[in-house]
């Protein structure tokens, strides 16, 4: 199994997701996958999971949400799984030709003040919002 976390984006949408490629290389994986009917070949080989509610599907057309985002993302991820890097943005608006430029990842935006100053630490908040730094970049003053 190969796991990649992806940032699925659409107009006004940001869906943190986990894509799992079912690899038949390992005999143990192969056995368990075959027990549930994943035989390899032309069947879908990517399980896609929305991390917010852990809803997951292996068939892109099983997403029954009345919305295009997950089916479109799933079809594209299946075709391009090997090219994707962990953390990549999958912007279906761009990939299906509805916008001219791909959206950039929001992982460097502070989730409180929305500044683009979150270093690659995996944090949700910038140093200022975490109280570690003044807005001018100086270390936070401590009460004396
Ligand atoms: Zn902030």
Structural write-up:
With 144 residues, the chain is α+β, with helices and mostly antiparallel strands. The protein folds into two domains: 2-95, no CATH class; 108-144, no CATH class. 17% of the residues lie in helices and 19% in strands. It has three helices and five strands; from the N terminus they run ββαββαβα. It has helices at residues 27-35, 69-80, 92-95; strands at residues 2-10, 13-21, 46-50, 56-57, 89-91. It has a five-stranded mixed β-sheet. β3 and β4 form a beta hairpin. The N and C termini lie far apart (54 Å). The relative contact order is 0.15. Bound molecules: zinc ion. Zinc ion is lined by residues 110, 112-113, 115, 125-126, 128-129.
- Label the structural class: alpha+beta
Strand content: 15-25%
| Average of the residue pLDDT scores | 88
Helix content: 10-25%
Which sequence of SSEs, written as H and E, runs from N to C?
EEHEEHEH
> How many beta-strand elements?
5
What is the overall number of helices? Answer: 3
What is the strand and helix layout of this fold?
Blueprint lengths: L1 E9 L2 E9 L5 H9 L10 E5 L5 E2 L11 H12 L8 E3 H4 L49
This protein binds zinc ion.
Zinc ion binds next to loops.
């Amino acid at each position: 199994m190969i796991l990649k976390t992806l940032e699925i984006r659409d107009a006004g949408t940001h869906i943190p997701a986990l894509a799992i490629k079912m690899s038949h290389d390992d005999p143990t994986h192969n056995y368990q996958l075959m027990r549930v009917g994943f035989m390899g070949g032309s069947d879908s080989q990517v399980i896609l999971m929305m991390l917010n509610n852990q809803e997951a599907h292996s068939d892109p057309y099983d997403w029954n949400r009345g919305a295009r985002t997950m089916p479109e993302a799933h079809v594209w991820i299946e075709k391009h799984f090997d090219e994707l890097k962990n953390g990549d943005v999958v912007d279906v608006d761009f990939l299906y030709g509805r916008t001219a430029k791909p959206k950039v990842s929001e992982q460097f935006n502070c989730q409180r003040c929305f500044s683009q100053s979150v270093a690659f630490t995996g944090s949700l908040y910038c140093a200022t919002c975490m109280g570690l730094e003044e807005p001018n970049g100086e270390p936070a003053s401590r009460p004396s």
